[in-house]
Amino acid sequence: MIVDDGGSGLHGIILQPFSSLLSSLVMRYYPLLLDLHAKHCLVIGAGKVGLRKIRTLLKARPGKLVVLDTAPISSELTRIAAAMPQLVLLHRAFQEEDLNGMHLVFACTSTRSLNAAIAKACTERGILCNITDDPQAGDVVLPSIIERGDLLITLSTSGASPALCKRIRHELDTQFGEEYTILLQLLRRIRELLLPLGQPSDTNAQCFRSLTRSSLLTAIRDQDTTAITHILTDLLPPELHPSITPIMYDLMTPH
Protein backbone atom coordinates (compact mmCIF):
# COMPACT_ATOMS: atom_id res chain seq x y z
CA MET A 1 0.00 0.00 0.00
CA ILE A 2 1.46 3.41 -1.03
CA VAL A 3 0.50 6.41 1.09
CA ASP A 4 0.87 10.18 0.83
CA ASP A 5 2.57 11.35 4.00
CA GLY A 6 1.09 14.84 3.86
CA GLY A 7 4.47 16.51 3.56
CA SER A 8 6.38 14.53 6.19
CA GLY A 9 8.95 13.24 3.71
CA LEU A 10 7.69 9.65 3.77
CA HIS A 11 5.84 9.88 0.45
CA GLY A 12 5.92 6.69 -1.55
CA ILE A 13 6.92 4.32 1.29
CA ILE A 14 5.29 0.92 0.88
CA LEU A 15 3.55 -0.14 4.07
CA GLN A 16 2.45 -3.62 4.99
CA PRO A 17 -1.31 -3.99 4.36
CA PHE A 18 -3.27 -3.72 7.60
CA SER A 19 -4.98 -7.06 7.03
CA SER A 20 -1.59 -8.76 6.68
CA LEU A 21 -0.28 -7.04 9.80
CA LEU A 22 -3.37 -8.06 11.75
CA SER A 23 -3.06 -11.68 10.68
CA SER A 24 0.48 -11.78 12.06
CA LEU A 25 -0.90 -10.83 15.47
CA VAL A 26 -3.60 -13.52 15.58
CA MET A 27 -3.06 -16.87 17.33
CA ARG A 28 -4.91 -19.94 16.13
CA TYR A 29 -5.29 -21.10 19.74
CA TYR A 30 -5.20 -19.43 23.13
CA PRO A 31 -2.63 -21.05 25.46
CA LEU A 32 -4.26 -22.02 28.73
CA LEU A 33 -3.75 -24.21 31.81
CA LEU A 34 -6.91 -25.56 33.45
CA ASP A 35 -7.48 -26.36 37.12
CA LEU A 36 -9.75 -29.42 37.00
CA HIS A 37 -9.99 -30.09 40.74
CA ALA A 38 -13.66 -29.11 40.90
CA LYS A 39 -14.52 -29.89 37.28
CA HIS A 40 -16.30 -32.86 35.71
CA CYS A 41 -14.73 -34.47 32.65
CA LEU A 42 -15.96 -37.09 30.20
CA VAL A 43 -13.96 -39.42 27.96
CA ILE A 44 -15.88 -41.37 25.32
CA GLY A 45 -13.78 -44.27 24.08
CA ALA A 46 -11.16 -45.94 26.28
CA GLY A 47 -8.98 -47.49 23.61
CA LYS A 48 -5.28 -46.74 23.15
CA VAL A 49 -5.81 -43.02 22.48
CA GLY A 50 -8.50 -42.60 25.11
CA LEU A 51 -6.37 -44.35 27.72
CA ARG A 52 -3.58 -41.80 27.18
CA LYS A 53 -6.05 -38.97 27.76
CA ILE A 54 -7.39 -40.67 30.88
CA ARG A 55 -3.93 -41.13 32.39
CA THR A 56 -3.08 -37.45 31.90
CA LEU A 57 -6.46 -36.32 33.21
CA LEU A 58 -6.07 -38.40 36.36
CA LYS A 59 -2.78 -36.62 37.09
CA ALA A 60 -4.75 -33.34 37.15
CA ARG A 61 -7.13 -34.79 39.78
CA PRO A 62 -10.48 -33.75 38.28
CA GLY A 63 -13.50 -33.56 40.56
CA LYS A 64 -15.06 -36.36 38.53
CA LEU A 65 -13.94 -38.30 35.47
CA VAL A 66 -16.51 -40.40 33.63
CA VAL A 67 -15.30 -42.92 31.04
CA LEU A 68 -17.70 -44.43 28.51
CA ASP A 69 -16.91 -47.34 26.21
CA THR A 70 -18.92 -50.02 24.48
CA ALA A 71 -15.89 -52.32 24.58
CA PRO A 72 -14.98 -54.08 27.83
CA ILE A 73 -13.20 -51.77 30.28
CA SER A 74 -9.52 -52.62 30.67
CA SER A 75 -8.22 -54.23 33.85
CA GLU A 76 -5.87 -51.25 34.31
CA LEU A 77 -8.76 -48.80 34.49
CA THR A 78 -10.72 -51.13 36.74
CA ARG A 79 -7.82 -51.23 39.21
CA ILE A 80 -7.44 -47.45 39.13
CA ALA A 81 -11.17 -46.90 39.64
CA ALA A 82 -11.10 -49.14 42.72
CA ALA A 83 -8.65 -46.72 44.34
CA MET A 84 -10.07 -43.47 42.92
CA PRO A 85 -13.78 -42.90 43.58
CA GLN A 86 -13.81 -39.86 41.28
CA LEU A 87 -13.21 -42.19 38.31
CA VAL A 88 -16.51 -43.62 37.04
CA LEU A 89 -16.44 -46.38 34.40
CA LEU A 90 -19.54 -47.05 32.29
CA HIS A 91 -19.72 -49.95 29.84
CA ARG A 92 -22.30 -48.63 27.38
CA ALA A 93 -22.84 -46.37 24.39
CA PHE A 94 -22.74 -42.57 24.56
CA GLN A 95 -25.99 -40.70 25.16
CA GLU A 96 -26.32 -36.94 24.80
CA GLU A 97 -27.52 -36.75 28.41
CA ASP A 98 -24.01 -37.83 29.43
CA LEU A 99 -22.91 -34.26 28.71
CA ASN A 100 -25.01 -32.88 31.56
CA GLY A 101 -22.78 -31.18 34.12
CA MET A 102 -19.59 -31.76 32.14
CA HIS A 103 -16.93 -29.07 31.71
CA LEU A 104 -14.49 -30.88 29.42
CA VAL A 105 -15.15 -33.72 26.97
CA PHE A 106 -12.86 -35.97 24.94
CA ALA A 107 -14.27 -37.89 21.97
CA CYS A 108 -11.85 -40.77 21.41
CA THR A 109 -13.98 -43.35 19.62
CA SER A 110 -12.99 -45.10 16.39
CA THR A 111 -16.21 -43.90 14.72
CA ARG A 112 -15.69 -40.56 13.00
CA SER A 113 -19.41 -39.79 12.70
CA LEU A 114 -19.93 -40.37 16.43
CA ASN A 115 -17.01 -38.10 17.30
CA ALA A 116 -18.49 -35.42 15.02
CA ALA A 117 -21.89 -35.77 16.70
CA ILE A 118 -20.27 -35.39 20.12
CA ALA A 119 -18.44 -32.27 18.93
CA LYS A 120 -21.70 -30.77 17.64
CA ALA A 121 -23.53 -31.52 20.89
CA CYS A 122 -20.72 -30.02 22.97
CA THR A 123 -20.65 -26.87 20.84
CA GLU A 124 -24.40 -26.41 21.24
CA ARG A 125 -24.05 -26.72 25.03
CA GLY A 126 -20.94 -24.54 25.31
CA ILE A 127 -18.80 -27.42 26.58
CA LEU A 128 -15.09 -27.52 25.78
CA CYS A 129 -14.27 -30.62 23.74
CA ASN A 130 -11.33 -32.38 22.14
CA ILE A 131 -11.93 -34.56 19.08
CA THR A 132 -9.04 -36.96 18.58
CA ASP A 133 -9.54 -37.75 14.88
CA ASP A 134 -10.40 -34.17 13.85
CA PRO A 135 -8.94 -31.62 16.31
CA GLN A 136 -10.33 -28.62 14.42
CA ALA A 137 -13.86 -29.95 14.92
CA GLY A 138 -13.48 -29.27 18.63
CA ASP A 139 -12.21 -26.25 20.52
CA VAL A 140 -9.46 -27.89 22.60
CA VAL A 141 -6.17 -29.10 21.16
CA LEU A 142 -3.80 -30.88 23.52
CA PRO A 143 -0.16 -29.80 23.35
CA SER A 144 2.83 -32.04 23.74
CA ILE A 145 3.94 -32.07 27.38
CA ILE A 146 7.26 -32.19 29.21
CA GLU A 147 6.82 -32.63 32.95
CA ARG A 148 9.53 -32.30 35.59
CA GLY A 149 7.77 -32.10 38.92
CA ASP A 150 6.24 -28.61 39.15
CA LEU A 151 7.77 -27.66 35.80
CA LEU A 152 5.26 -28.12 33.00
CA ILE A 153 6.35 -27.24 29.46
CA THR A 154 3.69 -27.41 26.77
CA LEU A 155 4.46 -27.36 23.06
CA SER A 156 2.27 -27.02 20.00
CA THR A 157 2.62 -26.15 16.32
CA SER A 158 -1.16 -25.51 16.13
CA GLY A 159 -1.48 -28.59 13.95
CA ALA A 160 0.92 -27.26 11.30
CA SER A 161 3.57 -29.94 11.80
CA PRO A 162 3.27 -32.73 14.39
CA ALA A 163 6.64 -34.02 13.16
CA LEU A 164 8.38 -30.74 14.03
CA CYS A 165 6.58 -30.66 17.37
CA LYS A 166 7.92 -34.14 18.11
CA ARG A 167 11.45 -33.09 17.19
CA ILE A 168 11.36 -29.97 19.39
CA ARG A 169 9.90 -32.00 22.23
CA HIS A 170 12.80 -34.45 21.99
CA GLU A 171 15.28 -31.56 22.13
CA LEU A 172 13.59 -30.04 25.18
CA ASP A 173 13.28 -33.44 26.83
CA THR A 174 17.06 -33.73 26.64
CA GLN A 175 17.67 -30.17 27.79
CA PHE A 176 15.43 -30.29 30.87
CA GLY A 177 16.49 -33.20 33.05
CA GLU A 178 15.24 -34.47 36.40
CA GLU A 179 17.45 -31.93 38.18
CA TYR A 180 14.69 -29.39 37.48
CA THR A 181 12.33 -31.44 39.64
CA ILE A 182 14.69 -31.13 42.61
CA LEU A 183 15.44 -27.47 41.88
CA LEU A 184 11.77 -26.55 41.94
CA GLN A 185 11.16 -28.56 45.10
CA LEU A 186 14.05 -26.67 46.70
CA LEU A 187 12.82 -23.26 45.53
CA ARG A 188 9.32 -24.05 46.80
CA ARG A 189 10.67 -25.00 50.23
CA ILE A 190 12.79 -21.86 50.37
CA ARG A 191 9.81 -19.73 49.37
CA GLU A 192 7.71 -21.24 52.16
CA LEU A 193 10.42 -20.31 54.68
CA LEU A 194 11.46 -16.96 53.22
CA LEU A 195 8.12 -15.18 52.84
CA PRO A 196 7.11 -15.45 56.53
CA LEU A 197 10.28 -13.52 57.48
CA GLY A 198 8.47 -10.37 56.40
CA GLN A 199 11.28 -8.97 54.28
CA PRO A 200 10.49 -6.39 51.57
CA SER A 201 9.21 -7.97 48.36
CA ASP A 202 12.15 -6.50 46.42
CA THR A 203 14.56 -8.27 48.79
CA ASN A 204 12.78 -11.59 48.31
CA ALA A 205 12.69 -11.13 44.53
CA GLN A 206 16.42 -10.42 44.47
CA CYS A 207 17.08 -13.54 46.54
CA PHE A 208 15.20 -15.76 44.09
CA ARG A 209 16.85 -14.09 41.09
CA SER A 210 20.24 -14.78 42.64
CA LEU A 211 19.33 -18.42 43.26
CA THR A 212 18.12 -19.02 39.70
CA ARG A 213 21.16 -17.27 38.21
CA SER A 214 23.63 -19.16 40.37
CA SER A 215 25.25 -22.52 39.63
CA LEU A 216 22.66 -24.22 41.84
CA LEU A 217 21.15 -26.20 38.96
CA THR A 218 24.56 -27.54 37.93
CA ALA A 219 25.36 -28.51 41.51
CA ILE A 220 22.06 -30.39 41.75
CA ARG A 221 22.72 -32.14 38.44
CA ASP A 222 26.15 -33.20 39.73
CA GLN A 223 24.68 -34.16 43.12
CA ASP A 224 27.33 -31.94 44.70
CA THR A 225 25.80 -31.37 48.13
CA THR A 226 28.82 -29.36 49.31
CA ALA A 227 28.43 -26.86 46.47
CA ILE A 228 24.67 -26.66 47.02
CA THR A 229 25.20 -25.91 50.71
CA HIS A 230 27.75 -23.18 49.93
CA ILE A 231 25.42 -21.52 47.40
CA LEU A 232 22.45 -21.55 49.77
CA THR A 233 24.55 -20.25 52.65
CA ASP A 234 25.85 -17.39 50.51
CA LEU A 235 22.49 -16.36 49.07
CA LEU A 236 19.93 -17.03 51.80
CA PRO A 237 19.41 -14.78 54.83
CA PRO A 238 21.03 -16.02 58.08
CA GLU A 239 17.62 -16.86 59.56
CA LEU A 240 17.28 -19.72 57.06
CA HIS A 241 20.75 -21.21 57.49
CA PRO A 242 19.64 -23.75 60.16
CA SER A 243 17.08 -25.10 57.66
CA ILE A 244 19.57 -25.76 54.87
CA THR A 245 20.84 -29.14 56.08
CA PRO A 246 17.37 -30.63 56.80
CA ILE A 247 16.08 -29.46 53.42
CA MET A 248 19.12 -30.85 51.65
CA TYR A 249 18.77 -34.20 53.37
CA ASP A 250 15.09 -34.42 52.51
CA LEU A 251 15.50 -33.51 48.84
CA MET A 252 18.69 -35.40 48.03
CA THR A 253 17.88 -38.62 49.90
CA PRO A 254 16.07 -41.21 47.73
CA HIS A 255 12.60 -42.04 49.04
Structural commentary:
The longest helix has 16 residues, at 179-194. The chain has helices at residues 18-24, 48-59, 75-83, 112-125, 162-175, 179-194, 201-213, 216-221, 225-235, 241-252; strands spanning 40-44, 64-68, 87-90, 104-107, 128-131, 144-148, 151-155. The chain starts with 17 loop residues before the first helix and ends with a helix. Strand 6 and strand 7 (151-155) form a beta hairpin. The protein is built from ten helices and seven strands. The mean pLDDT is 90. Helix 6 (179-194) runs antiparallel to helix 10 (241-252) and helix 9 runs antiparallel to helix 10. It has 255 residues and is an alpha/beta fold. The chain folds into three domains: 40-142, 3-Layer(aba) Sandwich (Rossmann fold); 144-176, Double Stranded RNA Binding Domain (2-Layer Sandwich), CATH 3.30.160; 179-252. It has a five-stranded parallel beta sheet with strand order 3-2-1-4-5, with helices on both faces. A two-stranded antiparallel sheet has the order 6-7. The protein is 45% helix and 13% strand.
List keywords for this structure.
Rossmann fold; single chain; five-stranded parallel beta sheet; 255 residues; 7 strands; alpha/beta; two-stranded antiparallel sheet; Double Stranded RNA Binding Domain; 3 domains
Beta-strand proportion: 5-15%
- Outline the low-pLDDT stretches: none
* CATH classification class of the largest domain: Alpha Beta
Order of helices and strands: HEHEHEEHEEEHHHHHH
Number of structural units classed as domains:
3
Under CATH, the topology of the largest domain can be stated as Rossmann fold
- Please outline the major beta sheet: 5 strands, parallel
Number of strands: 7
Portion in helices? 40-55%
Mean pLDDT: 90
CATH superfamily of the largest domain: NAD(P)-binding Rossmann-like Domain
- Structural class determined from secondary elements: alpha/beta
Shape: elongated
**What is the annotated CATH architecture of the largest domain?**
3-Layer(aba) Sandwich
Taking all Cα atoms into account, the compactness measure Rg is 25 Å
